[in-house]
Amino acid sequence: MSGRLRVLVVDDEPVARAGIVSLLVRDPELEVAGDCGDGRSAVAAIRELKPDFVLLDVQMPEMDGFEVIATIGAEQMPPVVFITAWDQFALRAFEVHALDYLLKPFDDERFAAAIERVKRFARAGNVGELAERLAALVQAPAANGWLTRIVVRKASGAVFVPIEDVDWIEAADYCARIHARGKVHVIRETMQRLEEKLDPARFFRVHRSGIVNLDRVREMQPTPQGDHVLVLTDGSRVRLSRARKAALEEKLGQPL
Q1: CB proximity list for 119: less than 8 A, separation 6 or greater
Q2: Looking at the structure, do residues 12 and 120 belong to the same domain, yes or no?
Q3: Is the pLDDT of residue 137 over 70?
């Protein structure tokens, strides 16, 4: 390792952020490149400052740590040490995917151990492996196994659609159109893979090319063709195939 490692600190709590900076400046092998209090500022700082690694708070309003990584792109993201208040169960993901993590509240000894791990990693220069692990972490489901957000790639970065905002999803060749709160987002994902990632208690496959959020269904209407249409709260009309009607009745526990 030649020169000092430049580190960016990202934490939405000013006191915690100042405390981390005060620990970093004691180390002659490190240089604090900057500090940020929110995810959007972190994205801008990472792109501008190009730090050697980032101490990244996971839980931040508006744009959390995962969204920062997704926006930058795992391949361009510097090595990450996560800072989190999540419990040990949730930390299993970090143990597998992250360079290291700090569980709040952490002491000076644990902090020093994480920094030493960063230094060893920097000397080894094994960045490609970490990028793959970060990419897997960003796409990982929530602790209960289901998606909590859908990441929509854009030329300017990424848009994050909370799963509760999704009205319905329709197939579009090898892509899917996400209808959410009056907007349509296109992602490169098959309906089958999406269905496997969505909570079946909330989302239902109404036909081969459609999945609806059951919380958005306002009523069901018959059609002259003998099947039915689900009318959503935003006025969208989504066909319910005859084959899937029985499955929906079974899910709801009552005839329709």
Answers
A1: 1, 5, 29
A2: yes
A3: no
